[in-house]
Each structure stands twice: as C-alpha cells, then as structure tokens.
Amino acid sequence: VMLWNLQKARPLWTTNLQECGSDEDSLQSAGQLFNPPLAHSLSVASCGNIFGCGAQDGKVRIFRVTGLKFERELEFKGHSLGVSQVLFMPESYWLLTGGNDGKVLLWDVSNDIGKQHKSPAKSLHKRKGQTAATARKDGKLNKVASNEHARILPKLTIEHGEKVNWITCTEIKGSRRVLVADQSSSISVYPLPES
Questions:
Q1: pTM
Q2: Half-sphere exposure of 101 toward its Cβ, with a 13 Å CA cutoff?
Q3: Residue 63's domain is classified under what CATH number?
Q4: How much is the pLDDT for 133?
Q5: Residue range 91-117: mean pLDDT, rounded
Q6: Which of 5, 34, 88, 109 has its CA 20 to 30 A from that of 127?
C-alpha cells in the first residue's frame, strides 16, 4: 500500500502488508512459505486521514495517515477468503466489506479507532459526538476490549452467496441499501439498519 505525492508523481510512504502481520502470522515453520496478503481494495473514511484495506488473507487493516506516512490502527478478520471490497460509509467509522466467501459484513469500528493515537482536536470532538449519538440510538452495538487481539464482531452479516466484486451504499425511497455486484449480470439490493 503506497501513499503518493501526485504533484511530484512519486510515493511518499509504502507499507508491505506482509510486514504488518500479527504474531500468529509470523509463526511459520522452517521450509514453509506463505503467499503475502495482497491488497484487494481501499476506502478512505470521511475524516480523510483513516483508510481501510481489504486483503487476500481475509483480514481488514485500518490505517491512519500521519503526515507523510501511515500507521496501523486496527486489524481484524471476518471473511474466510479474501476481502474483495471495503467501503467506509458516511457514518462515524462504519465499514462495509465484501468477500470472496460470498458475505457482506457491516462493521462499526468507531470505538476502536483512535485508542492509540490522538486525532486532530476538530476530528476527535466530532467523532466523540457522533459515537455518543450512535450508542444512544442503538443499544446493540458491539462492545470490544481495547487490546488489539480482541475479537471484533460484525454489526450485520449478509449471506450473498457469490464472490462480491463491488459494493456501494445508497438511499432508495428513504431507506439505506447496500448494492452488491457479483459475476452475474444482476445487482443485488439489501437493506441496512438505521444508524
């Protein structure tokens, strides 16, 4: 994953997802070779300095852009096969992921982003206000421990059944929907919970 300076057409920072692996991933026996987790999809959150990356190993990695580099904020696995699509929604750090396993998952990572690093004051104040409002409206939000190895659970699981090639979120007749494209000639439409 590379951060580019488009004016000078050169990369400013590069992160190899293989080097971002957790301790579990690095416990390889001698003579055993694993393919590196290839990045399949990226999405930038509305704040502009957080992005999510879906990879071939079924993991989602969340990074924060800090100046001319980026640091890993969070890593979790929800798909049994590669994560083909990630999409940050306009809400406070809600993330849609689509996988080669035929699932579409909705994640609320707002409680887990920013625990290790302070955001700019304006962004932090806005995020705290939105998180508090979300928690009041939906008492069923997942509670996650603050350590990195805690299991993050999806807020919603959609069993699409086919490899997900593309996802987006839109409003249709006053209700939020996720649109999913696979290898067929049809677009599937699923309802999303209200925030």
A1: 0.73
A2: 19
A3: 2.130.10.10
A4: 33
A5: 86
A6: 5
